[in-house]
Design a protein that fits this description.
Layout: E1 7-12, E2 15-20, E3 25-29, H1 32-67, H2 71-82
Antiparallel strand pairs: 1-2, 2-3
Helix pairs in contact: 1-2
Amino acid sequence: MTLRNRYGIEPTGTEFKLIDVNGLELGAFSTECAAREDLWRRQNEDALLDTAQLLVNVAVKGHILIHGTDRETALYWIRKALHWEPAIATSPATLKVADRG
């Protein structure tokens, strides 16, 4: 499904309703302009998510090829890497006394 057909705007009386491809109402707006702004925001967020999913899939496939793992294992390590925080270089003066051991 493309971004263009995920959402639609339906005028209903004095409102403009934003609906998704399944007919679910996502919001009602007093102007068409406001409805379009929300539609564009949602399309932008969808594009960000689509790109992130594509990049994760590429990373998973690469991990599988390099390490011979299965998809679940590759996802485990990629998720673990997402939460990894590199050690921050600090001067001894900024370390707590307990950390200076």
